[in-house]
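Archive transcription. Copying these from loose printouts into the bound notebook so they stop getting lost. Printout 1 of 2:
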Amino acid sequence: MKPPICEVCDLDFRHELEKNPATGGLVYFSDYQSLDNGMVGHPKGLGWFCAKHLSDAQFLSSLSKRMAMEQLRIKFNNFG
């Protein structure tokens, strides 16, 4: 699985997350697909978000991750 780095702003909060879970979290989007047994990697439709972007990502969780990310990038002017 990918480390906790925000999908919107690239903030790496893995060290803060260990101390304070409120620093961010995972969002499961509508296209989430778990990995098959024995597989390693990052599941499709799953993303890490820092505390600043988490609630907006959760609000869009009924969308596919791709569609949600398009809206989040527009909202936060992050077109990278």
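Printout 2 of 2:
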Amino acid sequence: MESLDIYLNRRPVGQLVHDGETLSFRYDREYLLLPAAQPLSRHLPLDRSGEAVFAEPATRAFFENLLPEGSVREQVARTLGLSPENIFALLAALGGDCAGAVRVLPGGQRLRTDGRYRPISNAALAAELATLPTHPFLADDEGVRLSLAGAQNKLPVRYDDTGFYIPQGEAASTHILKTPIAHLENTVVNESFCMNLAARAGLNVPDATVVDIGDLPVYLVERYDRQQIDDGFIRLHQEDFCQALGVESAFKYEKEGGPGFAACFELLRDWSDEPLADVAALLRWVLFNFLIGNADAHGKNISFLYAAGQVRLAPFYDLLSTAVYERQINNKFAMRMGGQKDPRYLSVDDLTKFAAEVGIGLRGVKRELSALVKKVKAVGPGLAQEYRQQFDNPVIVGRIEQVLAQRVGKAETLV
């Protein structure tokens, strides 16, 4: 039997135990006595008696979702000489700087209180990014333990106006770098444009931009699960909706058994400390993804943020127009709207069913869609012009504008 010690920031929380076949988790009694104790997950609630032991599948669903997915996880595992199914060993190797505040250490190993940021030149960083497909997350580098969920190559870093740094020891990353997706055109500008369009249209999103590292344009986004304090940065706990619903990452899509909109809105009403405001924000996210043509809006792309004693809907991320890649990506909805899986055929009847499923009046859904259409039409052209000037007139921006025009026209027939 093996164990890993689980921390939230520097505070010990409990142990993840592997008995050779299954995973289980148990909170420390000392943690449960703390007035500020918060659960790791909705599916791992606090039990003040200290007797509760969480077995599969709740334990696996939460901790498995901390790791990268798909081919990225497979490559990390190969680099480390592990099986991609060995969740326990992968967390032991990578879990030092996960999404949110969770830290994972081998049992009995003391949490380091020291940390530093190793400066890295643009040339050296460009070399690291070039090797991400075969050396993701700097796996096996001395003093570096980084893990982020998701299926795309990315690297957590510290970034400020002096340059880039690799976090080591206790030091927390502040930004995420994402390299272009090899088989899709200019995903870096695509995602940056969509995130900035979302910000101007009133969605809560972190700062995102494009930076040139060597000869490679790279997407750079600020981490919303970090907070600056006097002596550095602290990690804020977060939990994505798959974790909160007990769904493993392999089943994140609705058609594979993952959550749909009804489950997500019900979860939000049940778990958020400000459900009215957060339900309105989630509705805006759903409708914005329709307008930009994002067919990859699944349960792992929505999260809760645990901060200031409250559980709230986190800022939105991973906003990308997939519809511009119509021959390369299945552009059916990741979550059906009113039972409709194809955005081309979305009807008033579908919108009516969607409104009923998510518990919002049809009039309210139409009002939000109409308001969002007006904002996108008002701010989209100016943003597109900025991107043309900044990035030498990229073709992808014109394609996103075409998708927006089509979806706005569709939306106007629905309201």
